[in-house]
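INFO worker-7 received task bundle
INFO bundle size: 2
INFO processing item 0
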Amino acid sequence: MQKLLEKLVAFKTITDDKDENQRALLWIESQLKKHLHTKILTKNSFSSLVATTRKTKKPHLWLAAHLDVVPGPTKLFKAQTKGSKLIGRGAYDMKFAIACYIKLVQDLKEKVKDYDFGIMITTDEETGGESGTGFLLKQGYTSKYAFLPDGGTSLMIERGAKGVWNIEVESKGKSTHSSRAWEGENAIDRLVDFIEDIKSHFPKEPCGDKTHYHNTISVGKIKGGEATNQVPAQATAHIDIRFIPEVGGRAIMQLVEKEARAHSITIIDSRFGNASHVDVKSPFVQTFKKLYKKMHNITLGTEFSHGSSDARFFAEYNIPTLLIQPKGAGHHTDNEWIDMKGLEKYYKVMKAWVMEIA
């Protein structure tokens, strides 16, 4: 397992490096094609690999993962070990899963044909996932269940995740000299007024709720103006909104669009992802919990995620998705690590679970 993960970490699969992602996918395909039906598909220059035990677009179970990672220093692409920790970019987010999938096929060998599952590897998750998982599901690559260990940190089953709506908004005004501001219309002022009105509909932090189970808003970027002594005629802002499943994206959209009309603001770009929910009492999830307890005497807990993953695409197709990761931490940091002893235990449960579910 460790050699597989070290090999995967060594590929510098930053999302924008599509050639490197393609090379890594071809290597993964070479590890699988002896026993699986494989195919590489491309959307908007982003490549994805699908590999199935049977020649079908609809296996009983998808084992999903993303190969792409966020940028980092070159040294992070050479895995290091400290005790039982393996440190490197993508080790926890989420190349360990791909290593597990490869090992599963290698272990099952010819017996893999006795099961009905597929492996789905994408390369655009860190920038949205629409050209990877989103595209594949639209192409009919569906299933009854999905397994996506891109959430549920350190053996906590993810019971749900907030939805996300990223928008870019634009304000238009009228430029004039700042000494005669009354002759112009300040686009930045208009934009700030809009943002303040939108934020009034969200809880302020600190909110007093330790779980933070509520909608959130964050302004990540503002741009406008050309000179200090000039009233700006144009301004833009990038806004990140997260919402709980009970609220729903439609209500959030209606709220923002109403305020945008009131302030003469235009939404010029948008990226939306549904909130997701998993019934942790379902046999699909409970089987995994029981196997962990039986094999390692570990009782798994649950958690709700404030972040987002490709699980939102499976949710759109009503595909229950199990998200749970082994012990590790530091994703998107220079100290990203995974516990290899814990990963070996995790793999044994995952293998037994796949053999039972699929």
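INFO item 0 finished
INFO processing item 1
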Amino acid sequence: MVKSRESKQGNEVFSPPPRLAIMLLLYFHRKVGFTELLKLLHFTPGNLDHHIRKLSQAGFVKTSKALSWRPLTVVEITRDEANAFRDYAMKLRKMLEAIS
């Protein structure tokens, strides 16, 4: 199931560079706060929110609220989606190696 979703939706969902950057960070860190993503990626809040919503609608990430000294939105990649993203990244790597 994960393979079919990755092959059908992966190229479409990950093709915008901001989404690829978000997924790379989540792949290596599993969970990242919204504010931290803003700082790391230098996106505007609206732009980041848009791309996270698209990834969430496709089922690649989920968001949750955590209570701290102020409310915090946490963005997380699930294990199955991390595996699907790894497969996508490996295919992309092979394509890049073939052209270099």
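INFO item 1 finished
INFO post-check item 1: The first strand starts at residue 31 and ends at 33.
INFO post-check item 1: The beta strands are 31-33, 61-67, 71-77.
INFO worker-7 idle
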